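Structure tokens please, single chain.
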Amino acid sequence: MTSERFITDPIGLNPGMRFYKTGDLVQYTPEGTVTFLNRIDFQVKIRGFRIELGEIESVLSLYEPIREKVVVVKEDPSHEKMLVAYLVTENNVEINYQDLRQFLKERLPDYMVPSAFVRMESFPLTATLKIDRKALPEPESLAGSLSREYVEPRTQTEKELVKIWGSMLNAKKIGVNDDFFEIGGHSMIAVALIVRIEKEMGIRIPLATFFDRSTVALMAELIDNGPESLKWRSLVPIRPGGSKKPLFLVHGMGLNVLLYTTVVNYLDPDQPVYGLQAKGLNGVDEPLDTIEEIAAYYISEIMTVDPEGPYAMAGFSLGGRIAYEMARQIVAMGKSVSFLGLFDASADESYGNLPLPERTARRISHMMHYINWNISHFFREKSESKFDIIKRRLKGLEKKITGLDFKVENMDTISKGKRKELPKYLRRVHKANSRADRNYVIREYPGAVHLFKAQKQTFYITDPVAYGWDKMAKGGVFIHEIPGEHSNTFAPPNDKYFANVLQEHLNHSI
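Here you go.
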């Protein structure tokens, strides 16, 4: 088995490297000195990333004409945490927020760039003359000043969409050319937005619309072109152009392919990419409930693009197991697979098809190992709240004991966190895919697989090295360790590294 590992140097100090010491954020300079940057009394966690608010404030202080600044965490309408920067400028001059956002992006990872900016004449103070963070006003918009020149809605469709977008993004002034992802949107809000549009406008828009229709103007144009333009299919042309062999990416348990948005941006410009999303998300087609059926259906979809192959495919978590079954079936057809990528997907054995006594015995054994692993993980993770670990692990243990269907966490964001308002057709698709995953029996595959493992393992896996694939993939397992953990594998700054490793091996696969 060939292994490739992501190597870091935890000992050496490089010029510009930042580190933390006794509550202070300091920087190692090229001259060999240590420079104080800011206090780090305020540490937060957003979408899996631990963020020092003091570090963001330090970078903001470098931007003229900012005189005072404070960064806090607020909640957007879908109950997701977001960063908001409050600013006081010299002589109360205006700020070009587009320039400020670009300035921050050049110096901070994307997940540390505030979603909103609020300029104030002065900050409210406590009795001890410190900034009263609780008294800071709510931001009027997720994006502060929008990043493009404002263009007001012109048609009735644009007006309706602007109203819905503004409600979901907590923005009072959205221009029709403002990009959804640039003004604070992300995949979880996108799902809620699509559901809201269907509820208020009676139009069901494919979620994949956000890949090439991520402004109000483009989305309105799609709607106004009529039902023919809103046709839905599992195959999503994320980036269809290019001279290389296409890469087909299978959805994870979220069932749509928006999670790959950032990674695709860092792949070679001439690398075609297609996504595969779950059948039934359109609310019309019946969902499939076995991995074998899902794989066969997706194969029929990709062959409309490339009838002969060889094929390059990959998937995240559940999608990795689907991609694996697709590769098995393609080889059985007498065709070839040039690349099979498994993104933090495990081959842990399924017990769903076993007789009840044997299934019960194996579940008990697995559960005991699971408990043991979590106890050791609890004492290793000193930096994380032990209460959060206990809460998360008990929820996972409950699912293992009861065999409850997988509940998609990000679907809690639908209509301000009310799961009961999730459309029935979406719940039906999730249940079908959960059932398929639970009952899938993994069989041997004659080729090799590329396992992309998150460096930080935060959940129990029977085989923490090869995730069980070395017993199944007779051509071997290539292991690539990727920064981050399961939930933020594709989030900045991990996305760029992930894309570079993926493209390198795609280039060598043919």
